[in-house]
Amino acid sequence: MLAVFQSFSVRHLRLRWPRAGLVVLSIALGVATWVATGVLNHSMEKSIQLAATPLPGVADFYVSNEDNGVHAELAKHLRQVPGVKTVQPLTVEPVSIQLGNGEFRQVMMIGLDLSMQEEGPGDASAWGVEVSDAAKIKFGFLLGLRAKPVLVGQELAKDLSADSDVLTILAGGQRWRVVSAGSINASGPMATMGGNVVVTEGNLASTLLGRSGRATRLDVVLEPNQDRDEMRTRLGDVLAEQSSSFPAKLQEPKDQDDKVRDALLGLKLGFALCGAGALVIGMFLVYNALAVSVAERTHDIGILRSLGATRGQVQRLFLGEALLLGLIGTVLGLPLGLGLGRLALGPVQKVLTDIFLPMAAREVEISLGNLLAASVAGMGTVLIAALIPSTQAAAQEPADAVRRIPPTLSWIFRIMQVGGSFLVLLLGTGFITFKSILPPRWGSYGGIMLLFVGCMLVTPVLAALVAGMIRPVARRLLGIEARLAADNLVRAPGRTGLVIAALAASVTLFVETAGLIRSNEDAILAWLDRSITTDLIVTSGGALGTSGQNIPMGEDVANHIHEEFPDVKVLAISFRNLDWDYHGGKTRVLLAGIDARVYYEANMERHAPVPHLDLFRRLADEKATAVVSDNFAQLHGISAGDTVTLPSLHGDLEFRVLGSIEDYSWNRGTIFVDRANCTEDLDFKLADVYDLYLPPDSDPADVENVRERLQKSEWGANHLLFAVTRHEAIDYIIKLVRQLYGLAYSQLGMVALVAALGVLMALMISVIQRRRELGLLRAVGASQWQVLRTVLSEAVLMGAIGTLIGVLMGIPLQWYVVQIILFDEAGFAFPVVVPWKEAGIFSLAAMAIVTLAGLLPAIHAGRLRIAEAIAYE
Predict the structure, then answer these.
(1) CA 315 to chain centre
(2) Is the dihedral of CA 265, 267, 271, 274 positive or negative?
(3) Start-to-end CA span in the chain (Å)
(4) What percent of the chain has pLDDT over 90?
């Protein structure tokens, strides 16, 4: 059997090496897309988990009180629980530190419960804090003098001033002078911070950050061989007893990981679907190539069957041929995918840093499971694609095959083909219809994937119908070349239909993505125009950012602004992250503390068209009330009159919901409360953003003058203040939206490349199969240019049909993504905006790509020698 495989299959692949190479390349690109998306998903998830939960991997349990912080005194009570080994208060917050060149850099301040005795830091070593003996002694000495000593990461130490140990840090809304006691060597969990860290004693860190006595979390480490469920109960009992004095919640590390995964799941699934889409398109192209290969070797198959080869042996020959091509493509695709992942890591990291949290992923995270899944997917798609052609080859009768009788598709096969397509479409519709009783996301994402595959399966039938409609028009109105091309499309629907399906799939995905972006952009732009009515937005530590990169500011900043600009209204806004139940697990929602009365009066004064503005007046007048975003209300079943429970410094507090407003700040929803009514309970002493409202008659020059004076003043420089105008803020947010969806465009480029390879493969096969026909055309007087135009015309017609079908399928797919998936993921009910302009541009681009793909086969056809072409058989 091996000898037959070598002479029958391997020899054929050598003779048809361009076609085999295209099959290998399409599989390699599909596998590479799968691998690249997998390693990026894994790398970004790990990086965001490290950013959301710094220094993981040490504790068995976390004790926290959301962003309010947890009282470090609670650690004493928890240490008394039997089975607890250690309880370490940990403070982790971003701060800005002045470098040797005078510029500021954002770094992470780590506050640990350092045991500064003769042996120096004790428990800190568990996080990878390695300190020299000299630094330990100096740190303890400075701490005894009531100075403010810190230890800096080695990477950071290189950029600090070498002339003085006194450093300037911006933290907790103030400038602090601290003293460097030396540097640390970071290892283990601390190494994940990238060396940009400032480590100090826990109580000192809390003071510098303006939250004296409170840590970010308490890390609880258990004694060996403790029952986790029993320890959870014991620790929970202690927290319940201390809730009135020390409100806090108990969590496991996996709880934090689950929240991050939930926030990223929609993005990860979108990436994964694009990777799977590339493989599915590749599968159709492999099927097309193998089907043509079977047709070409009908005579050889008949001879094998006449010599005694069984049907099973013939089928295994073709399956082995496909698996060989799939193996080569997979082996090439794995390193290619890792390379693409490394190239895309920087841009993807920048986008997610701007949107979610600051992160530092220096290398892609290579997962053996991801590589194995990509290999199985690549080989599996090839095997599935080879099943039908290999079965058809084995089913041929020896006598018919030897006589070169062309195989004809039975009516049963045609019914099965059409019926199978509609069965997949029906199954996808069922997934969507009954998604409420299916596991989360099975219905929405499983349904869209089945609909996508079903559309690809039915596209060859649609392509044949469209080609049949085009042929009469081509005969009457177009030249001889276009007429021959249209005839060839109708005569070979099996070869051209699948390639048109691959092209239509890429157009469909592009139209859907472009429509999603346009729907997002138009809705968000309208919302921003209505909701951002301020003249200037002031932040500290850096320009406006949405991922925690700015440093909170104290009330003294607002006081300085009032003194300098008496006519300017100052609106303070503070943000917090909260845990919320969602689909049986925990997710993150946004809590926004806003000076409701200032917001109401400033917008009333300038007659701003802010919807539901009166809700903010009520928010200021009525205590213990809240306003929620529309998506929060829809996702969590909250309506006006209901109550929401928020964690505070003094235990849980209930807030009555006044109503909901349009807001797209966070995908799991936003809760607005009045800062003035709950500053003490929710720790809103610091503001993340100050919005400045100039008098209504101010012009752009007045706004620019205030910004310049604000940033160049001495107190503005001391607080590292940045100010952006309303239009700059809107442009920045829209830029983030476009960057996020730009990642999807990059993946669609890979899918489009696979489709272009399919067109190239189909036309090459067409030239090979029609060699005698093209030779006869040349013999009766057709020029090389006419033959070239015939092949190019076929490429253009294939592109036109595929583009038309892709646009027609992309619009309903876009509606489904915007109205169903986006609503399920974020509760955002955006109006559907059909991207006619983008669809037109991509359609032209697709036509150009298809034409270029057909150029090489066309040139090859034009160079055929008449005598050799006629004597081909």
Answers:
(1) 42
(2) positive
(3) 29
(4) 14
Helix or strand run (H / E) with residue 171 = strand 166-171
C-alpha 3/C-alpha 23 separation (Å) is 24
Which three-class secondary structure state does DSSP give residue 409?
coil
7-34 pLDDT tens trace:
666 776 777 677 777 778 777 877 887 7
Does a structural domain hold residue 354? yes
Place of tokens 């013999």: 779
> Alpha-carbon distance 743 to 749, whole Å?
10
Within 382-526, strands assigned E span: none
- If one counts the domains in the chain, the total is 4
* 753 & 658 share domain: no
pLDDT in tens, 560-584: 999 999 999 999 999 888 888 776 6
CB 683 within 8 A of CB 578: no
- Specify the amino acid at residue 850: V
The more confidently predicted of residues 755 and 343 is 343
pLDDT at res. 117: 38
pLDDT at 288 exceeding the cut of 70: no
Packing angle of the helix pair 784-816, 726-769 (nearest 10 deg) = 140
Neighbours of 473 (CB within 10 A): 12
Q: Which long-range contacts (CB under 8 A, 24 or more apart) does 773-778 make?
A: 774/861, 774/864, 774/869, 775/864, 775/865, 775/866, 775/868, 775/869, 775/870, 775/872, 776/869, 776/870, 777/484, 778/864, 778/866, 778/869
Do residues 165 and 174 make contact, with C-beta atoms less than 8 angstroms apart? no
Report whether pLDDT(872) > 50: no
Residues 683 and 769 in one domain: no
Q: CA 541, CA 544: separation in Å to the nearest integer?
A: 9
Residue 294 maps to a domain: yes
Query: How crowded is residue 608: how many other Cβ atoms within 10 Å of its Cβ?
Result: 17
Q: How far apart are CA 458 and CA 461, in angstroms?
A: 5
Average pLDDT over residues 502-525: 82
**383 vs 359, residue with greater confidence:** 383
Q: What is the pTM of this model?
A: 0.76
H helix or E strand, kind and range, residue 788: helix 784-816
Amino acid at site 263: A
| Rounded-to-integer distance, Cα 633 and Cα 640, Å | 9
Same domain membership, residue 229 and residue 310: no
Residue with the larger pLDDT of the pair 819 and 123: 819
Q: What share of the chain is helix, strand, coil (3-state, %, to 5)?
A: 60, 15, 20
One domain, residues 293 and 238: no
> Is residue 540 one of the residues assigned to a domain?
no
Res. 546 pLDDT band, cuts 50 70 90 = very low
